[in-house]
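Exercise 7.
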Amino acid sequence: MIDEQRHYLSYLLRLWQERATSPAVWRASLENSRTGELVGFADTMQLFAFLQEQVADGTGDGRQTDIGSSQETGTLHDGKDGVGAREATGPTT
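Solution. The predicted structure, written as tokens, is:
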């Protein structure tokens, strides 16, 4: 079972555009479908970097222990040291 988890990652991806910033920027969040952990990203580059980290060593176990995340609010992955910079707010309408 553990071996299977290492070869399969599943996330719910949410993308939204914040127009309050100039220029408008795309925000993202990933919810781990197995654990429910939620991680937010300030931009798509940070999202891509996080995904690359998850698969880089070939194990792909999906653990997010280096990122302080919360299922209720999520955190914003800063892409530098793995620590959440601020809460993710989710899509705005």
